[in-house]
Amino acid sequence: MKIVIIGGGNMGKSFAQSFLNANLIAYKDLFIVEKNEQQIAILKQEGIQNIETAIHSFIESMDIIILATKPQDASVIFDDIRPFIQEKQIVLSIMAGVSIQTIQESLNTKKVVRCMPNLPCQIGLGVTGFLMDNSIEQVQSTYILQLLNTTGIAIALKEEDQLNAITAISGSGPAYVFYFMQSMVEQAKNYGFSEKDAEKIVAQTFLGAVELFLKNDLSNQEWIQRVASKGGTTEAAISIFNQNNIAKSIQDGLDAALNRSRALSNK
Fold this sequence. Notes:
- The structure is a single chain.
- The chain is an alpha/beta fold and 267 residues long.
- Helices cover 51% and strands 13% of the residues.
- The protein is built from 11 helices and 8 strands.
- The chain has helices at residues 10-21, 37-45, 74-81, 100-107, 138-149, 161-171, 173-190, 195-214, 220-227, 233-243, 246-265, and strands at 3-6, 30-33, 51-52, 64-67, 90-93, 112-116, 126-132, 152-156.
- Strand 5, helix 4 (100-107) and strand 6 form a beta-alpha-beta unit.
- Helix 6 (161-171) crosses helix 11 (246-265) and helix 7 packs across helix 8 (195-214).
C-alpha cells in the first residue's frame, strides 16, 4: 500500500507517525504534501523523507489519499487533486464539516471515508469515529480500520450525522476534561497547594480513575457509590453537584456542541 497525506500539520503528522510505528506501512511508501518549510523540517526529523511541496501526478500511484487540511481549504485541494484521482483509490478525509457527498462529487469518486479524530490521537490515545462508503471492499475497509486504530480506538458509525455527535463527545471532549481539571486545580491552590502540586494531584486523580474504570467491569455509577460512603466527604460533594444539576449542564453543553457541529456541516 502507498499512502499520501495531504497536510503535514499536527494531525497529519500524528497519523503518519502512528502508521509507521505500527509497521502498517514502510517509510518508502508514505508520502506527505506540505508547503510550510518549518513543518517540513519537523517531518524530516521524524524520518519522513517523501515530502512533496505541491500536488502533482505522483498522486496517481497512491492507494490511499488522506485529506488532512483545514476544511476552508477543501475547494482548492479538490481542484488540485481531481485530475489525478483513480477509480481504485480510497480518499480518507479528516476535514470537519465536509460531507462524504461533497467529497465524492468534487473528486468524481465513490470510495470515500470520512472520519473525526480527536486531539489525543497525537499520543496514540485518541478516539476516531468513521464512516465508509459501501463501495469500499472488505480488504480495503479492514486495512483502513487497522490504520485508524493505530491512533487509539476507531468507532464505526452508522450514519453521517453521528460524526457531528462524536465531535460533540470525543472531538470536543478533551476540553471538557481540562475544564473540570482546571476547576479542581484552582480550588487546590485555594487550599494552599502550589500550582505544580495542584496540577500533579488532579492529573493523577483523573488518570487513576480512568484506569480503574478501564480495568474493571463496574459502571461509572457503581464507582461513585464505592467512593461515596454514607455521610462522607464524597457524598457531600456529589450532593452539591446534584443540587446544581451539573450532569444536566454537561449534557446541555454537549447538545450545544452537537448543534454547532451540524450548523458548520451545513454551511
